[in-house]
Design brief:
Elements lengths: L5 E2 L3 E3 L2 E7 L8 E9 L2 E10 L3 E6 L5 E11 L2 E7 L3 E4 L4 E3 L7 E4 L3 E7 L8 E5 L26 E5 L18 H16 L7 E6 L1 H12 L4 E5 L5 H8 L3 H11 L3 H18 L5 E7 L4 H15 L5 E5 L7 H18 L1
Parallel strand pairs: 13-14, 13-15, 15-16, 16-17, 17-18
Antiparallel strand pairs: 1-3, 2-3, 3-6, 4-5, 4-7, 7-8, 7-9, 9-10, 11-12, 12-14
Helix pairs in contact: 2-5, 3-4
């Protein structure tokens, strides 16, 4: 027979998952229930059949952060008459917080801190992992949330693609963290390493990409972690100087100061030297492909000083200069450069 089971949405509060369901009292006889607990799509615990109450409450206290679901079974005698999987709840156990996703395929990786991402595996075999770091979207300057970049641009490229969202406590952190700490960075590199290991991809077969803030991150990660290639558009090198000039709204100023940390002076020095320090101590470099507008202030104020450091160290790179002035036009020119460069690399 079919049973009408009234199930409330699964909730999370005070460190516990709670699922409440009920059946009509006159149908309670000879009914039992069981459930499986899933974390990140894997069954981690199975609770066997027990008598059903008119109103039954299941409570689970997760110990480890992840995406949780329950699969509920109801039997009448020996026959399963109900078998359904609950909605997914993304739980940050450390902070006892429920996290939400905004896109259908978006997932959350939990390490030191949660990292939101989109992963698109290649169709068929591929030994290449492409990383896409996002830039600062215009609404973020008014307190808006971070967004992904270049998803449509990279659609024709058949490699493994990992789109990383720079969202730490609901704001940007240049994929590093606040207050000169690297907790977000540790989580990001742990996610990259996990996916690379899963698909047997070496560091030399990782391509880091991004423009503006994303370009700064692609440069930083590719140099620090010895990735094979980096495709970089108009990056900020002196990050604190750039943000200080553009922190004109109260919300942007608050985010900027949160990024710097308690000691604002040290924070400014840290962010202005973050990338140049990695360039100074690196023993080898990725293949680097730079793009920038000839009239964009990022060229003389940020990229040119970096290229001088690379020249002094005898590091080879390629530079694509386009004839535009506004940094806001970077996306229009960088997107085709990005696609063209990746397709050429993949063909090789």
């Amino acid at each position: 027979m079919k049973i009408k089971l009234n199930r409330m949405p699964m909730k999370y509060s005070h460190g516990k998952l709670k699922l409440i369901f009920s059946v009509p009292a006159k149908k309670i006889e000879n009914l039992t229930y069981a459930y499986y607990i899933y974390q990140d799509g894997k069954a981690i615990q199975k609770i066997w059949y027990q008598p059903l109450e008119t109103v039954t409450t299941i409570q689970v206290e997760p110990l480890f952060s992840g995406a949780y679901q329950l699969r509920l079974f109801v039997k009448e005698g020996d026959t399963i008459i109900y078998n359904e999987l609950t909605e997914t709840l993304n739980i940050d156990c450390k902070n006892q917080a429920l996290l939400t996703t905004t896109l259908a395929d978006e997932k959350i990786f939990f390490n030191d801190v949660p990292v939101k991402y989109l992963f698109q595996p290649a169709e068929g075999a591929s030994d290449t992992l492409l990383l896409s770091f996002s830039g600062l979207y215009s609404t973020e300057f008014q307190g808006g949330p971070p967004v992904y970049n270049h998803i449509r641009t990279l659609e024709p490229v058949n490699v493994h693609k990992l789109f990383l969202l720079d969202s730490y406590q609901e704001q940007f952190c240049y994929y590093v963290g606040f207050n000169r700490e690297h907790d977000f960075e540790r989580a990001v590199i742990a996610l990259i390493t996990k996916i690379a290991n899963q698909y047997n991809i070496s560091a030399k077969r990782i391509i880091a990409t991004g423009s503006s803030k994303g370009g700064a991150a692609a440069l930083y990660y590719s140099v620090k972690y010895n990735f094979g290639k980096a495709i970089i558009g108009a990056p900020q090198i002196y990050i604190a100087d750039y943000l200080n000039k553009r922190a004109n709204s109260p919300s942007m100023r608050e985010r900027y100061e949160r990024l710097l940390g308690e000691n604002q002076q040290q924070g400014q020095r840290f962010w202005n030297q973050l990338i140049l320090h990695e360039v100074a101590v690196a023993e080898k470099f990725p293949d680097m492909y730079f793009h920038v507008g000839e009239g964009d202030f990022h060229y003389p104020q940020h990229l040119a000083p970096l290229l001088q450091h690379l020249d002094k160290r005898g590091v080879a790179y390629q530079l694509d200069l386009e004839s535009y002035e506004n940094h806001s036009d970077t996306g229009l020119y960088f997107a085709p450069f990005l696609l063209r460069t990746i397709q050429a690399l993949v063909r090789k």
